[in-house]
Amino acid sequence: MALGNLTSPPEFLLLGLMDGPDAHPLLFLLFLGVYLLNALGNLSMVVLVRSDRALCAPMYYFLGHLSLVDVCFTTVTVPRLLAVLLHPGQAVSFQACFAQMYFFVALGITESYLLAAMSYDRAVAVCWPLRYGAVVTPGRCAALVAASWAVAHLHALLHTLLIAALSYPRSAPVRHFFCDMTVMLSLATSDTSTAEAAIFSEGLAVVLSPLLLVSLSYARILAAVLGVRSAGGRRRAFSTCGAHLVVVVLFFGSVLSVYFRPSAAYSARYDRLASVVYAVVTPTLNPFIYSLRNKEVKGALKRGFRRSAASQAA
Description:
single chain, mainly alpha, 3 strands, 4% strand
């Protein structure tokens, strides 16, 4: 870490979504509602997958982990965003800022790999249904999830250490609602070439790997669906896959547009809006997109409500 950071750690001032000292109570209520919806949807999925024996397929195993990651992902940033919407310019210590960056990056990369694992699972189920049980085994599912967490945390640790080693002003305004990598690079007063090279090389490889797997999986699914003779079957498959692809495009598209461009092209307004898409909107949509069209999840919800009503009546 730079000597200046060791002797007098900087303090960062989060400005939030909007520049200026004014509070935004309506935006506070909007994001509070979205956050509560996110927590309700994702935690419900986690409880359902853990408690209902009918949801024991690999798809639901991945969905349970994705829901857990999503609720943690938004919890890293949204509570701070809510506080800043009411009280702009909140001070954040050096340690808290980079701890937030670490968990944000780790959870975001974990989500991208889980999305890739889920697309691979669906591709095997659609294209090779007779071999599904032999290919997608519980052991392989656990290995994919463990690898997703491990790669994500190693990636986050590397990037956080590189960016934390830079020098910063004693009191720096952060034109964002959390301590993001691109923002911290733009605030640094020392040479950022090494950190930027790592983000564009190692970071690009880590992000593009799941995106490539997702693209190949859905291309294979599309080819299989086009071979289905039944118009109704094709329509149902396109409807489901189309909803999944919307989530994937929103997530990966906004991530790539924010993190993989030169720091000279940095735009605080654009980065804040794009960050809302992948850090707030997509994690909120995931449980509804992946589960509301699913008969097994609907059945599990009904059984859960019946058990709850029966226990209250007793």
